[in-house]
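Box 3.1. Reading complex inputs
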Amino acid sequence: MSAHLGVRNTGDNFSAQQIAQNFDDLHPPLNAERASTEATRCLFCYDAPCVTACPTEIDIPKFIGQIATQNLPGAARTILSANIMGGTCARACPTEILCEQKCVLVKGEGAPINISALQRHAVDPIIMADGAHPFARAAETGKKIAIIGAGPAGLACAHALAVLGHQVQIFEAKTKPGGLNEYGLAAYKMADDFAAKEVEFILGIGGISIEYGKVFGRDFTLADLQETFDAVFLGIGLGQANQMSIEGENLTGVQDALQFIADLRQTADKSTLKIGKNVIVIGGGNTAIDAAIQAKRLGASEVHLVYRRGFAQMGATEWEQDLAKTNDVIFHQWAKPLKIEGESQVQSMRFERTKLIDGKLLGAGETFALSADQVLVAIGQNLDAGGLGALEIKRGKVMVGADGQASLPGVFAGGDCIQSGEDLTVQAVQDGKIAAAGIHAFLGGANG
Amino acid sequence: MADLRCSIAGIESINPFWLASAPPTDKKYNVERAFAAGWGGVVWKTLGEDPPVVNVTSRYGVHKDTGRGILGMNNIELISDRPLEISLREIEQVRKEWPDRIIIGSMMAPVEEELWKELAIKIANSGVHGIELNLGCPHGMCERGMGSAIGQVPELVENTTRWVREVVDIPVFTKLTPNTTDILLPAEAAMAGGAHAVALINTVNSVIGVDLDIMAPNPVLDGKGTHGGYCGSAVKPIALHMVAEIARNAATRNLDISAIGGITTWRDAAEFIALGANALQVCTAAMLYGFRIIEDLNDGLSDFMDQKGYRSISDFRGLAVPNTVNWNDLNMNYDLKAKIDPDTCIECGRCHIACEDTSHQAILMEIKVDGSRKFTVIDNECVGCNLCQMVCPVPDCITMEPVKNGLPYVTWPDHPKNLMKAKE
């Protein structure tokens, strides 16, 4: 792994300048020469495996070919017509388990095309520019659609509906749009306020308005929306953090990792943030990794990531795990939280070793403790069903059909609140696209 | 290390690689650098009578692939723009300082016997090993009645060659233009004029590209452009063909050939030699990469010869000539089928779509349960065209396998479906 991907420190306080540098772009953009060289490596496969591996089915060989012929606006249109959040996906997608994993050059040359970097090269100029939006709206249909949540699913759905000529009203609980793109991804993946810029770009299509500070279930219900709108899309994500349900969980210094990341993302001068000396991160997903690396980059002396199973079972990809290791995050596998110890402030945390017996994860009896003044919990989120009323929910997810329609007619859903693919931006965008087509059809529009 | 010495028109060279008449050979400084790098000889940039020509700025244009690869370039430079006397004195000096290297003097003059003879004598007196007649330059000079304007008229090719032969006693190379319909006509004319060797090809007339902002052909000079001479890798196939035509033509097969045209690698060199070239001239590759390319040209050619057991250039010179035949001499019964090695296939699908869209629908694509793809040749549909093998990015993954059909060698003139034959 390249040296610049790792930040190593001895626990001494970072200067404000060093911290700012620590949260710079993880992967600096390609320059034109590098992009050209990489683009010409592409074999332009027929029915390319990378395309089928992309949840949004971006025509990857086509856009790479357009980069090769120096048709960057065309490349951007190819990407954005399949995935309006191509910019975020270029930064945050775990391409090592998606398009790049399927690149035939993995077998051919031992290394895939750097698809994400090329995608960023293509879309950034158009997203960062103040120029004309690359898509035009169809004639007004007079139909109004309510969308709950201005996250990736909601925004993708909104954009697709706006293109079709519908009016979209988004209700967002927070004060900013973007959902997890704005609040939940590591800062070094979304440098230079990219999430906000991308949303501004998406809204450039017109026909979409957003009301902020509107909390679903508190300020309005599904029934309210069904009355005033022609259709409703739920892009509410998973609003509640899972609990460990152990002793000491309420001690000062114990925090939801997503909240930690959100605070970090919303603080311009990250040197003003407090970080523990010894930080424990609980969990094995990408959020756990993002939290652990960022804790380290804020200046924690030691960051311990504790996961109840092994590396192979982690939700975080191998690449993400390696990134954490490169950043001196200390991994502890096969250990589950027993209790958090301390007076009012967390002082240490005790774990029990685990083992797999007949496919079941069991405590092995042996325990150990790690001292800590901060504990970040990243063990997933669950659906906040408040406000959903009679909508059918199974295994903590809103049930939808192939067109994204939930159990009530005219109510659609997508993103993390439904069971589609992985809980990733790229999947949420696809869910939003599918639901937009579903809504359009529901409202009597022609398919396609 | 194989013996790379070669002989052409009676001239012995330490290796077959000479720099062609062009900017790299315009003056002593460059030529000495070339000799220091290891080049066997140079053809000095074409000299004309004083006053020397005046060149323009913006002289070269490029044809690239979508990456950084240069497929070819063209130029609108004229012949040497230095005073004749300076060039001749420099030639004399270099001849003395590099006694084992070859210098050929290239020349050009208006179509007047006296002018050709006077200039040829002056150049011969500088001590060159031979004289090359530039009858090929397709830009600028041809507008003044020289270069390709001479090379395109066999009678003038013969006359100019004869004029030079009559006044010098060193070997005469007639350099041919490819901007003609049948290369054998000027080649035979050169022979009739007494040429010891022909040198070919000169550059191909071309417009290298259009500047879409200025709306003028490249290279653009003050808003205008003109056609120029195309060279580099892209012209190699044209040159190979013309060299082969001369080498296999009964009237010219004993004519020595100094082959020119896109030679970039030792492999290119070996191909020209296999088609009958006695020696080689290189320009564009040196202009793009510098004189040091001579190291691998020599080294690679030597390795190739060692591997094949050729001890000298003459051991394999012309070996491909008897196998270069007319279409009518090809075996109509020969049958090839493509075969795809599933173990090395990386599933890109390029073979499938090339065949499906543009050829014979002979490659089946099957998608397996796990999403992987399997590509199989449908033998009955495959016409053995090689397209799939060419587009396949994996070396040796697709092979063209001869079918053992036991049928005799039958050419088109003898083929049962040939109606002309049936009438006999």
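In summary: The radius of gyration of chain B is 24 Å.
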